[in-house]
Amino acid sequence: xxxxxxxxxxxxxxxxxxxxxxxxxxxxxxxxxxxxxxxxxxxxxxxxxxxxxxxxxx
Length: 58
Known about the structure:
- By secondary structure, the protein is mainly alpha-helical.
- The chain has 2 helices and no strands.
- Helix 1 packs across helix 2.
C-alpha cells in the first residue's frame, strides 16, 4: 500500500512540475533556483558539520 502511495505522489509531483514548466516557465526557473540554493545550503551545512567532527567536535 505504501509503495502505491509513493508512486502516486511522485506521479502527481511530476505532473505538477510539467504543468508549471509549460504554463509559466519563468516561475519554474525560480523554483529550480530555490531548490538548488536549498541543496547547496544543505551541502555546506553537512561540510561544516564534518569539519567540526574532524576537528574533535568542539
